[in-house]
Amino acid sequence: MAQTAAWFRILALAIWFGGMVALDFIEAPLRFGSGVLTRNQAVALGQLVISRWVQVELGLGIVALVCSLIAIVPRWSRWLLATLVAIVAVQAAYLAPGITRLAQGLDFVQRTPGDPRYASIRHLHTAYAVLEVVVLVGVGVLLVTIARPEAR
Fold first, then answer.
1. Closest CA to 107 of 15, 58, 19, 39
2. Number of Cβ atoms within 10 Å of the Cβ of 37
3. Which pLDDT belongs to residue 120?
């Protein structure tokens, strides 16, 4: 049972990490830089992608955390994983919906001067992005630790 849980933990962490890398370093630059979509279309598509991805992240994090409770893993990695899942929960429950709510009806090409929603979105998006980097690094640390068992 512990070995099976360890394998599912690795799988969940790998999919989580790979999905983050694919979205952050491939999908987002293509969406905004391809010229196929207007900026407003790219923002709208990004909101859809992020709202779904954060749910997938949360699911993968919970699977990895449950498996960490069953598998034989260092205690610090359980705490790190629990912290990462908590961060994603904040992103899913507060930041992503807040960004989407504030962006409704905004034009990101021809901005309305003085509209405070742009500043609010910027603050929420910055918080989301910083936390996303923390999660990416944290999941990466967990995967490197698995790849180097002598470092446990």
1. 39
2. 16
3. 82
Using CA atoms, how far apart are residues 82 and 88, in angstroms rounded to an integer?
10
Average pLDDT over residues 95-112: 82
Q: Which two tokens stand for residue 126?
A: 């910055």
Q: How many domains does the chain have?
A: 1
Burial class (CB within 10 angstroms; exposed 0-12, middle 13-18, buried 19+) of 57: buried
Compute the mean pLDDT over every residue in the chain, rounded to the nearest whole number.
Answer: 90
Three-class DSSP category at 18: helix
3-class DSSP assignment, residue 152? coil
| Structural domain for 128, as ranges | 2-151
Asked if 51 and 96 touch (Cβ cutoff 8 Å), the reply is yes
Roughly what angle, to the nearest 10 degrees, separates helices 2-22 and 39-70? 170
Q: How many whole angstroms separate alpha carbon 148 and alpha carbon 152?
A: 8
pTM over 0.70? The answer is yes
pLDDT tens profile 20-45? 999 999 998 988 888 888 888 888 88
